[in-house]
Amino acid sequence: MDGNILRDETVARLRAEIEALGNPHVCLATVLVGDDKPSQIYVRNKHKKAEEAGMRSKHIGLAGAATQADVEDAVRTLAADPDVHGILVQLPLPDGLDAEAVLDLMPAAKDVDGLTEASMGRLMRGRDGHVPCTPKGVLRLLERYGIETSGKSAVVIGRSSLVGLPLAVLLARKGIDATVTLAHSRTKDLGEACRDADIIVGAVGIARLITAEHVKPGATVIDVGVSRTESGIVGDVDFETVQAIAGAITPMPGGTGPMTIACLLENTLEAARMLGAVAR
Ligand code: NAP
Question: Ligand 1, residues 163, 167, 256: which to mutate, most atoms within 8 A of Cβ?
């Protein structure tokens, strides 16, 4: 399941939609605190792909020594700016900064990362709202590659509010209809939890945690985890052994990462619609 191809298709579709609407102003704003290199690359990619999709983008970069008030001011400014439709605060924030207080300042319509209480509450209630980008990207991959979810058993490993928990909720939603197990660090026997699953998603961040022993022949395996090793980026899935028995598998990199960006851009266009800046 190639995330780069699906990301490119999504960017092209968004660009065509925006062109068909007469190229309205649609703007994604990002806030990055500190000089963490991977975060800088993520943010730069988001701007590059936004531009390819026909969107504008804006960036506020704050020094690692920024105070809570500096970060909150940046978000307040973007929240009040009528020319900004989506706001993404790159997480995690440096130690000592309170991300929850920052998210609390975000208007739900501009919360394109889907992480505020309002967005999460809507997700739980099955109401319209922004869905976190990585879980949404996983669903897009399943749809695009024709993976049946209804009545299937899915195991999501990892329960963060960024990835695992919202993904488990989405997979269990009416219309998607998987039977979901949510595994985590206290799960007694991960192998047993996974072995009968039709769909396995690793969202942990431990290199090659999921091996062929965890996977039923023909199962779909999706890798969200990112570990930086001396040999480069490695996922939660031991790709070489698992691909031999899986029915479908995402590479890492090149699977869920590009789809996270694609879904961020989908959410940004939707934010512009919610704010009345773009016609439905
Ligand atoms: P996180 O907040 O650190 O959560 C990790 C989860 O893994 C926790 O729920 C933890 O359980 C669980 N876990 C830890 N050790 C485990 C073990 N041995 N067996 C089973 N579960 C275990 O991380 P996150 O923000 O969800 O991100 C997860 C990974 O995805 C990271 O590598 C991150 O870099 C990556 N990521 C990738 C993308 C993408 O686009 N591909 C996007 C976002 C994040 P407890 O809750 O019990 O501690």
Answer: 163
Q: CA of 26: how far to CAs of 15, 50, 76, 277, in Å?
A: 11, 9, 19, 8
pTM for the full model? 0.97
User: Is residue 120 very low, low, confident or very high in pLDDT (cuts 50, 70, 90)?
Assistant: very high
Q: Is the CB of 164 under 6 A from ligand 1?
A: yes
Domain residue ranges of the chain, discontinuous segments joined by +: 10-108+258-274, 133-249
pLDDT digits (tens, 9 = 90+) for 139-197: 999 999 999 999 999 999 999 999 999 999 999 999 999 999 999 999 999 999 999 99
The phi, psi pair for 94, rounded to 5°, reads -55, 155
Task: Name the CATH superfamily, with its identifier, for domain 133-249.
Answer: NAD(P)-binding Rossmann-like Domain (3.40.50.720)
Domain 10-108+258-274: what homologous superfamily?
A: Leucine Dehydrogenase, chain A, domain 1 (3.40.50.10860)
Report, as residue numbers or ranges, the catalytic residues. Answer: 46, 90, 113
